[in-house]
Backbone:
């Protein structure tokens, strides 16, 4: 197996294990067993578990940035409709009933590791900034098209939407219910993102 493929395989197995449990509960031996690799293979690619965690987080952020770019890019479809469809898809993936029902990795790691690893915290912070920019650009397009009031501060609204989404995911995990996520959609798209 070429070097890049082995490293990628380790990252993929680490992501799957971490998504089902947590960073702390993701032991190296379990990840290596899933990957079918030896401990020596791991240390050939990563100097530490923190280094591995950052690589997993970066991969996740790359995948989610690609999703946002694809789903939110300018088109004839209403920006607000695109944004709603985007969050509905995220809920379908990361909500309690979703394929990856353990929640958003960025949010999960923020709760678990932001106070313990400067490298991970910086990666998370940058990930949130990129995400906010993608949502903010879509909101700005909605303002330009007259779908949203020009009084809306799209930067602040993007941050509010992401904070609300992450909070709703946390509550959905606590309740083992999608009620909080449905309320998120109802409030954001029924009360806040409306034309004046």
Residues:
């Amino acid at each position: 197996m070429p070097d890049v493929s082995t490293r990628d395989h380790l990252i993929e197995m680490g992501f799957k294990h971490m998504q089902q449990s947590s960073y702390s509960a993701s032991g190296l031996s379990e990840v290596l067993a899933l990957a079918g690799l030896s401990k020596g293979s791991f240390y050939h690619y990563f100097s530490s578990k923190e280094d591995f965690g950052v690589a997993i987080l970066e991969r996740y952020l790359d995948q989610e940035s690609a999703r946002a770019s694809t789903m939110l890019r300018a088109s004839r479809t209403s920006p607000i409709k695109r944004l709603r469809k985007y969050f509905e898809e995220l809920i379908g993936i990361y909500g309690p009933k979703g394929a990856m029902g353990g929640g958003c990795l960025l949010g999960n790691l923020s709760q678990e590791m932001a106070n313990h690893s400067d490298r991970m915290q910086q990666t998370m912070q940058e990930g949130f900034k990129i995400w906010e920019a993608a949502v903010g650009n879509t909101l700005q397009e909605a303002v330009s098209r007259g779908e949203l009031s020009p009084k809306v501060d799209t930067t602040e609204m993007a941050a509010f939407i992401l904070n609300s989404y992450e909070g709703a995911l946390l509550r959905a995990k606590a309740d083992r219910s999608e009620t909080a996520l449905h309320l998120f959609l109802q409030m954001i798209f029924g009360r806040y993102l409306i034309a004046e």
About this structure: The two ends are 58 Å apart (CA to CA). The chain has a mean pLDDT of 91. The domain at 1-46 is CATH 1.10.10 (Arc Repressor Mutant, subunit A).
